[in-house]
User: Which sequence fits this backbone?
Protein backbone atom coordinates (compact mmCIF):
# COMPACT_ATOMS: atom_id res chain seq x y z
CA UNK A 1 0.00 0.00 0.00
CA UNK A 2 1.36 3.41 -0.95
CA UNK A 3 -0.17 6.52 0.72
CA UNK A 4 -0.42 9.78 -1.17
CA UNK A 5 -1.84 12.88 0.54
CA UNK A 6 -5.55 13.03 -0.19
CA UNK A 7 -5.73 9.59 -1.74
CA UNK A 8 -4.46 6.16 -1.37
CA UNK A 9 -3.18 3.98 -4.16
CA UNK A 10 -2.79 0.28 -3.95
CA UNK A 11 -0.06 -1.24 -6.04
CA UNK A 12 0.05 -4.93 -6.54
CA UNK A 13 3.31 -6.50 -7.55
CA UNK A 14 3.49 -9.96 -9.05
CA UNK A 15 6.75 -11.84 -9.25
CA UNK A 16 7.30 -14.08 -12.22
CA UNK A 17 9.55 -17.07 -11.99
CA UNK A 18 12.71 -16.84 -14.06
CA UNK A 19 12.85 -18.50 -17.46
CA UNK A 20 13.38 -22.25 -17.27
CA UNK A 21 16.88 -23.52 -18.04
CA UNK A 22 17.13 -24.92 -21.57
CA UNK A 23 16.89 -28.66 -21.95
CA UNK A 24 20.27 -30.28 -22.62
CA UNK A 25 20.76 -31.07 -26.30
CA UNK A 26 21.07 -34.78 -26.93
CA UNK A 27 23.14 -35.59 -30.01
CA UNK A 28 22.07 -38.52 -32.16
CA UNK A 29 24.15 -41.66 -31.66
CA UNK A 30 27.14 -42.12 -33.93
CA UNK A 31 26.49 -44.42 -36.88
CA UNK A 32 27.68 -47.99 -36.29
CA UNK A 33 30.92 -49.19 -37.80
CA UNK A 34 30.42 -50.93 -41.14
CA UNK A 35 30.28 -54.70 -40.79
CA UNK A 36 33.37 -56.68 -41.77
CA UNK A 37 33.34 -58.35 -45.18
CA UNK A 38 31.66 -61.72 -45.44
CA UNK A 39 33.69 -64.48 -43.91
CA UNK A 40 34.73 -62.55 -40.83
CA UNK A 41 38.43 -62.58 -41.75
CA UNK A 42 38.86 -59.11 -43.26
CA UNK A 43 38.55 -60.56 -46.75
CA UNK A 44 36.04 -60.37 -49.57
CA UNK A 45 37.32 -63.09 -51.89
CA UNK A 46 36.03 -63.80 -55.39
CA UNK A 47 38.15 -66.90 -55.80
CA UNK A 48 41.56 -68.09 -56.88
CA UNK A 49 42.77 -69.76 -60.04
CA UNK A 50 45.43 -70.25 -62.64
CA UNK A 51 45.38 -67.37 -65.12
CA UNK A 52 45.33 -69.44 -68.29
CA UNK A 53 43.29 -69.33 -71.45
CA UNK A 54 43.25 -72.92 -72.58
CA UNK A 55 43.96 -76.26 -71.04
CA UNK A 56 42.20 -78.38 -73.63
CA UNK A 57 39.98 -77.86 -76.67
CA UNK A 58 37.23 -80.29 -75.59
CA UNK A 59 34.91 -79.76 -72.63
CA UNK A 60 32.49 -81.64 -70.42
CA UNK A 61 30.42 -80.95 -67.33
CA UNK A 62 31.42 -83.10 -64.36
CA UNK A 63 28.86 -84.52 -61.86
CA UNK A 64 30.18 -82.19 -59.13
CA UNK A 65 29.34 -79.13 -61.25
CA UNK A 66 32.89 -78.40 -62.35
CA UNK A 67 33.80 -77.84 -66.00
CA UNK A 68 36.59 -79.95 -67.46
CA UNK A 69 38.57 -78.98 -70.54
CA UNK A 70 40.93 -81.54 -72.06
CA UNK A 71 42.99 -82.41 -75.10
CA UNK A 72 42.31 -85.52 -77.14
CA UNK A 73 46.04 -86.26 -76.92
CA UNK A 74 46.06 -86.26 -73.11
CA UNK A 75 48.77 -83.63 -72.79
CA UNK A 76 46.55 -80.81 -71.51
CA UNK A 77 43.67 -80.62 -69.04
CA UNK A 78 42.08 -78.04 -66.78
CA UNK A 79 39.20 -78.07 -64.31
CA UNK A 80 37.21 -75.01 -63.40
CA UNK A 81 34.74 -74.03 -60.70
CA UNK A 82 31.96 -71.50 -61.06
CA UNK A 83 29.98 -70.23 -64.02
CA UNK A 84 31.65 -69.79 -67.43
CA UNK A 85 31.51 -66.21 -68.70
CA UNK A 86 32.61 -66.87 -72.29
CA UNK A 87 31.25 -69.27 -74.91
CA UNK A 88 31.99 -70.13 -78.52
CA UNK A 89 29.54 -69.72 -81.39
CA UNK A 90 28.02 -73.09 -80.57
CA UNK A 91 27.35 -72.14 -76.96
CA UNK A 92 30.16 -74.26 -75.54
CA UNK A 93 32.05 -72.83 -72.55
CA UNK A 94 35.55 -71.48 -73.10
CA UNK A 95 38.43 -71.86 -70.61
CA UNK A 96 38.85 -68.14 -69.95
CA UNK A 97 39.15 -66.82 -66.37
CA UNK A 98 36.39 -64.55 -65.07
CA UNK A 99 35.24 -63.14 -61.74
CA UNK A 100 33.12 -66.23 -61.04
CA UNK A 101 35.05 -68.80 -63.12
CA UNK A 102 38.39 -70.10 -61.85
CA UNK A 103 40.83 -72.79 -62.94
CA UNK A 104 41.79 -74.82 -59.87
CA UNK A 105 43.54 -77.70 -61.67
CA UNK A 106 45.92 -77.38 -64.62
CA UNK A 107 47.88 -80.00 -66.55
CA UNK A 108 50.27 -78.48 -69.04
CA UNK A 109 53.41 -79.35 -70.95
CA UNK A 110 56.91 -78.81 -69.60
CA UNK A 111 57.74 -75.50 -71.29
CA UNK A 112 56.35 -72.69 -69.08
CA UNK A 113 59.35 -70.50 -69.95
CA UNK A 114 57.27 -67.33 -69.63
CA UNK A 115 55.74 -68.41 -66.35
CA UNK A 116 52.40 -69.72 -65.15
CA UNK A 117 50.49 -67.50 -62.76
CA UNK A 118 47.86 -68.06 -60.10
CA UNK A 119 46.03 -65.17 -58.47
CA UNK A 120 43.81 -64.80 -55.42
CA UNK A 121 41.10 -62.31 -56.42
CA UNK A 122 38.81 -60.17 -54.28
CA UNK A 123 37.74 -56.71 -53.15
CA UNK A 124 39.42 -57.01 -49.74
CA UNK A 125 42.51 -59.16 -49.24
CA UNK A 126 43.94 -58.86 -45.74
CA UNK A 127 47.40 -60.42 -45.48
CA UNK A 128 46.95 -62.36 -48.73
CA UNK A 129 49.72 -64.87 -49.39
CA UNK A 130 50.45 -68.34 -50.74
CA UNK A 131 51.99 -71.51 -49.38
CA UNK A 132 52.98 -74.38 -51.66
CA UNK A 133 54.64 -77.76 -51.92
CA UNK A 134 56.07 -79.76 -54.78
CA UNK A 135 55.23 -83.45 -54.62
CA UNK A 136 58.29 -85.12 -53.12
CA UNK A 137 59.65 -81.80 -51.86
CA UNK A 138 59.53 -79.85 -48.63
CA UNK A 139 56.78 -77.37 -47.83
CA UNK A 140 57.81 -73.96 -49.16
CA UNK A 141 60.87 -75.18 -51.09
CA UNK A 142 60.67 -73.17 -54.34
CA UNK A 143 62.72 -75.57 -56.47
CA UNK A 144 61.01 -78.54 -58.11
CA UNK A 145 62.44 -82.00 -57.48
CA UNK A 146 64.79 -83.42 -60.07
CA UNK A 147 63.79 -85.93 -62.71
CA UNK A 148 64.47 -86.99 -66.26
CA UNK A 149 64.98 -83.45 -67.42
CA UNK A 150 67.54 -80.68 -67.26
CA UNK A 151 67.01 -77.08 -66.30
CA UNK A 152 64.75 -76.21 -63.42
CA UNK A 153 61.38 -74.99 -62.19
CA UNK A 154 60.80 -72.75 -59.23
CA UNK A 155 57.92 -71.01 -57.48
CA UNK A 156 57.86 -67.28 -56.68
CA UNK A 157 55.14 -65.54 -54.68
CA UNK A 158 54.31 -61.92 -53.90
CA UNK A 159 51.11 -60.98 -52.10
CA UNK A 160 48.15 -62.56 -53.86
CA UNK A 161 50.23 -63.77 -56.86
CA UNK A 162 51.99 -67.10 -57.34
CA UNK A 163 54.35 -67.73 -60.27
CA UNK A 164 55.80 -71.00 -61.59
CA UNK A 165 58.62 -70.49 -64.04
CA UNK A 166 60.99 -72.82 -65.84
CA UNK A 167 64.37 -72.17 -67.35
CA UNK A 168 66.39 -74.01 -70.01
CA UNK A 169 64.22 -77.12 -69.79
CA UNK A 170 65.09 -80.14 -71.88
CA UNK A 171 63.40 -83.53 -71.64
CA UNK A 172 65.11 -86.89 -71.31
CA UNK A 173 62.27 -88.92 -72.88
CA UNK A 174 60.57 -90.56 -69.88
CA UNK A 175 56.87 -89.95 -69.21
CA UNK A 176 56.25 -88.32 -65.83
CA UNK A 177 54.78 -85.22 -64.22
CA UNK A 178 55.91 -82.69 -61.66
CA UNK A 179 53.03 -81.90 -59.31
CA UNK A 180 52.58 -78.74 -57.27
CA UNK A 181 49.88 -77.95 -54.72
CA UNK A 182 49.37 -74.32 -53.73
CA UNK A 183 47.17 -72.88 -50.98
CA UNK A 184 45.86 -69.31 -50.96
CA UNK A 185 45.45 -67.59 -47.59
CA UNK A 186 43.60 -64.43 -46.60
CA UNK A 187 43.02 -62.97 -43.15
CA UNK A 188 44.74 -65.91 -41.48
CA UNK A 189 42.54 -68.51 -43.20
CA UNK A 190 43.07 -70.86 -46.12
CA UNK A 191 40.59 -69.85 -48.82
CA UNK A 192 41.60 -71.87 -51.90
CA UNK A 193 43.67 -74.83 -53.08
CA UNK A 194 45.14 -75.17 -56.58
CA UNK A 195 46.99 -78.01 -58.28
CA UNK A 196 49.45 -77.96 -61.19
CA UNK A 197 50.81 -80.95 -63.11
CA UNK A 198 53.72 -80.20 -65.44
CA UNK A 199 53.61 -83.08 -67.91
CA UNK A 200 56.56 -84.68 -69.68
CA UNK A 201 55.32 -87.07 -72.40
CA UNK A 202 57.25 -90.23 -73.11
CA UNK A 203 58.90 -90.90 -76.44
Assistant:
Amino acid sequence: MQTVPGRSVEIEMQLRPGAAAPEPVTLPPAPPEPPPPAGGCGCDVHGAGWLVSGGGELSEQLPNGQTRFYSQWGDAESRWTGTPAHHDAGGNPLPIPAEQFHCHYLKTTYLPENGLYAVLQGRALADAHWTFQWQGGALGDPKAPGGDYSGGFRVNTWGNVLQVIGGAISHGGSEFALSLTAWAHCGGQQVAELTLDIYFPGY
